[in-house]
Amino acid sequence: MEPQVYARMGEIEDRHWWFVSRRRIIADIIRQCAGLPRPARILEAGCGTGGNLAMLSRFGSVGGFEPDDAALATASSKGLFEIRRGSLPDQVPFAQEQFDLAVMLDVLEHLDDDVACLKALAGSLHENGYLLLTVPAYKFLWSNHDEQRHHKRRYTKRRLMKVAGDAGLDPIMVSYYNTLLFPIILAVRLVRRITGSKRDDDRLPGRIANALLRRVFSFERRLIGSVPMPIGVSLLMLARKRC
Predict the structure, then answer these.
(1) pLDDT digits (tens, 9 = 90+) for 85-108
(2) Where does the chain have alpha helices with state H?
(3) Cα–Cα distance between 13 and 223 in angstroms, integer?
(4) What percent of the chain has pLDDT over 90?
C-alpha cells in the first residue's frame, strides 16, 4: 500500500466505522469456531498497523507478521504482542510453531499468488486448525480505493472457495458481508467513476455519520451465518485445514 494509507490507517482504525465494525464481526465469527482451544494460539498474517491485535488477544496469545517496516513499528508499539517482519508466501516467520487460528483480514487481494500464499499460511496451522479471512468483493466495485492499496483483484464467492480448496483448505462458511450498505457504496463509487473523483473511502466521517454507519454495519453480526447474504462489498470465509 501507499505509505500515506498505512499512516492514515494507524490514525483512524480505532474509531472509523468500517474498522470497528469489522472487528466486531470477526470476533463473533471466532466465537463460533467449534473446538478452538481457549486460550488459542493465533497468528495474524499482514497485521498492518496492529488494529486487530487487542481484539484477537481476547481469544488467546497472538503473533503477527507484516512486510512494511513503518506499519510493523506501529503494530509492535501496541502492546505485548509478538510481531515479526515477514511476508507470504516465502517469508513466513514462526516457522517452528503451529497455530490454532490464522487470521488474514483484507490481505489476500494484495498478493500475487493467492493459492501459494494460502497454502503457506495453512502450513502454519495445527491439524484441523482454522483460517479466517476477508477480501473485497466484485470487480465492478473497483475504484481509487483499490488502486491506492495496490490491490491485485477483488473476489466472488465462487473464486474464493476455489482458491481455498486449491490451497488445501475446506471452507466451513463463506458469506458476502457489508451488505446493508452495499447500495450506498455502489452508488458512491459509480458517481466517483463518472466524475473522476479521487476522494478516498477511508476518511473519518463526522461523529454522527460515523456512529450511524458503525451501527448499521455492526448489525450484520446477527445475520452472517444464519441469513443468506447474496451480495456485499466484501467476503468473509472461515475454513479448516484439510487433514
Answers:
(1) 999 999 999 988 999 999 999 999
(2) 3-12, 17-31, 53-56, 69-76, 114-122, 144-148, 157-166, 182-195, 207-218
(3) 24
(4) 81
Instruction: Specify the 3-state DSSP secondary structure of 15.
Output: coil
How crowded is the C-beta side of 231, counted as CA atoms within 13 Å?
Answer: 10
Residue 17 φ then ψ, to 5°: -55, -40
Is residue 85 within 8 Å of 69, Cβ to Cβ? Answer: yes
Residues 181 and 216: beta-carbon distance below 8 Å: yes
- Angle at which helices 157-166 and 114-122 pack, to 10 degrees? 50
Rounded to the nearest 10 degrees, the angle between the axes of helix 3-12 and helix 69-76 is: 20
- Residue 47 DSSP label: -
CATH architecture group of domain 3-241: 3-Layer(aba) Sandwich (3.40)
